[in-house]
Structure formats: C-alpha cells, structure tokens
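Okay, any thoughts on this one?
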Amino acid sequence: MNLESLLVSRDAEVVRVLRPTLEKLQIDVEVSSAVKSGSEALTSTKFDAVIVDCDDLQGGSEILRNLRNTPSNKSSVSFAILNGKTTTQQAFEMGANFVLQKPVTTAGTLRCLNTALSFMIREKRRYFRCPVQIPVILVLSQGEQMKVTATNLSEGGMAVHFDGKLAKTAFSKVHFMLPGTRTAMEPKGEVAWCDDLGRAGIKFLEVPESSREQLERWIMKKLAHHVTSAQ
C-alpha cells in the first residue's frame, strides 16, 4: 500500500537522502523546490505526509503554519526540516508532528519515518472513500425511516443519494450491510451536508467498538486493493 508524500525543499542533499528513504518504505514522493509550487500542490492533492524545509527555503515555515488550513491536508502528518534557525519547540508550535535536523542522514530519517508510519497509514485509511452501491435505512429518533443509497463509504461516514427531501438532522440508526459480508452496521449519524441534486453526506457519530473494528478491517482491505489496482 503506497503512501503519498510531498517534500518542499530545494536542498539537493535533502532530496538525495529523503527520496530513496521514503521509497524504501513504499512512500511515493513529489518534490517541490519552491514555496509557490508546494502551496499549489497542497491545494490540489491529498498527501499522507508533508515534509517542509523550514530554515533554508524562504517561506517554508509559512507552508507549515498554513498546512492545517488546507482542506485536503489539514490532518496530514507533517515534518519540519530544521537547520539551526528554528527550534524544535517552535516547529511543533507551527504544526509539525515530527522534526528532522540537518544534516539529514538515511539512518536518522528512517528512524523518524518508521515512527511516523502508523500515523500516516491511519490518516490514509481515515481519508479513503470506497465507492459502493448499497441500500441504507436512516432511522430518525421518532422511529420514522428513510431509504437512501450509499455511493461511497469511509470510516467516518458515507455519501448517499436519495429521492425527495432530507433535512439536516440526526439519526438514531444508519442501518446497512457491510458490502461483501453478513455484517449489519447500525451507527448513529447526522447529515453533514446536503445539496439540491439528491446527494448528502452522512457523518457517523457513534459506532459500537466491534462494528468499528470490522469497518476498519474492511476499509483496509479495500484500500489495499484500490492501491494495488492503481499501480
């Protein structure tokens, strides 16, 4: 399962060390040597990890500070590369999850990435939406029911298509069968968004622990298949 990363740096030595180290861990890397191109990439593409040269690239610190304001990458795992100007504490305050100090080494980078890997996988799994076509019953707290069709499914919710009107409300149950299994899912949920074309997003509010584990395993299996098929 390949992960996706963005490296924003014009330091040739940093790129030379980090690219093969990332690829060794099955992390694809896109390199941006300028702040502008790096910022543009963050607005158009979802990355599991964002690595920013904060001290030796003018404007690099601003990319790190603004990362949490980018819709697609606000929860991406972030790394700050430092070279004596910015302290580790300042990097964390700017939003970095991990810090690499120059001169970067293969061994040091590998240790840091191995520590961060589980967070990156979790982020990819959380973000992944699996296309589906399954019937869903939305149960209101008063017991009223509405039948809709789910068009994608993630750990945190689903997109649905419906006929008629769907108010922005909460549901005591979002009942559906996990595709390809005999597992019934009944999380609580609410309407996160809705448009005039009969489409809506349902956010899961409460998922029983046993059901959550089954959903996570299902998502991981589908994600691995999706990544393999795309290669």
Summary: The longest helix spans residues 106-127. Residues 226-231 have pLDDT under 50 and may be disordered.
